[in-house]
């Protein structure tokens, strides 16, 4: 899921290529996970639960837990992009591995009113199960050499978003062509226009 979704009111993005990277993107350009309402929108938008799943049982501890996982993921992903992993890398790795032990929410297929099969969860999801799904995604990403080699940090001005470059030729430069790519093209055009006037 990318920009232009039902979560636009919160400016959430789902275009980094992996759920764990989409969670990292919730810090830019400012903190997005600042309320339970936004966190629940992110959980649904990321596809961790089927649309319409009630998350009314979520509480403030969920925000704390998702932010903590996001911080650990940032240490792992950005540490993995650095020439040598940061000192806190092993601590973050152990914590993400612990979180990944929780089984993700159990899905089941049920008939909708029109007779088609739709996905529902067996029961309301627990926070640890949702965190476990994100942590497992990170473990899969970080242990897959092909995927790990496709990790890129956006070249946009002041954009820290890390994404999975699945473009042909692996030449994608920006987290989003519509956001950072467009800014870069506009800035380049202005520089050329200023040079031609000089």
Q: pLDDT under 50 segments (min length 5)?
A: 1-7
Number of separate helices:
7
Percent strand equals 5-15%
The biggest beta sheet reads:
2 strands, antiparallel
Average pLDDT, to the nearest integer?
87
Q: Portion of residues in helices? A: 40-55%
Determine Rg (CA atoms, Å). Answer: 19 Å
The CATH C-level name is Mainly Alpha
SSE order: HHHHEEHHEEH
CATH topology: Jann2411-like fold
Number of self-contained structural domains: 1
Find the structural class using helix and strand composition: mainly alpha
Beginning-to-end CA distance, first to last residue: 44 Å
Q: What kind of oligomer do you see?
A: single chain
Would you report the number of β strands? 4
CATH architecture: Orthogonal Bundle
What is the general shape? globular
Strand order of the largest sheet: 1-2
Descriptive overview:
Helices cover 47% and strands 8% of the residues. Residues 1-7 have low confidence and may be disordered. The protein has helices at 19-24, 36-45, 60-81, 89-100, 127-143, 145-149, 177-197; strands spanning 107-111, 117-121, 151-153, 162-164. Helix 3 crosses helix 4, helix 3 packs parallel to helix 5 (127-143) and helix 4 (89-100) crosses helix 5. It is mainly alpha-helical and 198 residues long. The protein has a single domain (8-153), classed as Orthogonal Bundle (Jann2411-like fold), CATH 1.10.3300. The relative contact order is 0.14. Strands 1-2 form a two-stranded antiparallel sheet. Strands 3-4 form a two-stranded antiparallel ribbon. It is globular, with a radius of gyration of 19 Å.
């Amino acid at each position: 899921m990318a920009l232009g979704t039902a979560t636009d009111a919160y400016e959430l993005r789902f275009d980094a290529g992996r759920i764990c990277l989409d969670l990292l993107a919730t810090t830019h350009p400012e903190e997005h996970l600042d309320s339970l309402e936004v966190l629940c929108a992110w959980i649904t938008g990321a596809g961790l639960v089927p649309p319409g799943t009630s998350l009314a049982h979520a509480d403030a501890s969920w925000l704390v837990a998702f932010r903590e996982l996001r911080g650990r993921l940032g240490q792992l992903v950005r540490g993995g992009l650095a020439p040598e992993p940061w000192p806190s890398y092993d601590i973050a790795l152990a914590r993400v591995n612990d979180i990944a032990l929780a089984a993700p929410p159990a899905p089941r297929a049920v008939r909708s009113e029109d007779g088609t099969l739709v996905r529902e969860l067996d029961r309301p999801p627990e926070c640890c199960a949702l965190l476990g799904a994100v942590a497992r995604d990170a473990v899969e990403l970080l242990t897959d050499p092909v995927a790990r080699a496709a990790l890129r940090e956006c070249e946009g001005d002041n954009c820290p978003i890390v994404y999975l470059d699945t473009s042909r030729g692996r030449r994608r430069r920006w987290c989003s062509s519509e956001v950072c790519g467009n800014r870069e093209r506009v800035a380049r055009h202005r520089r050329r226009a200023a040079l031609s006037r000089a």
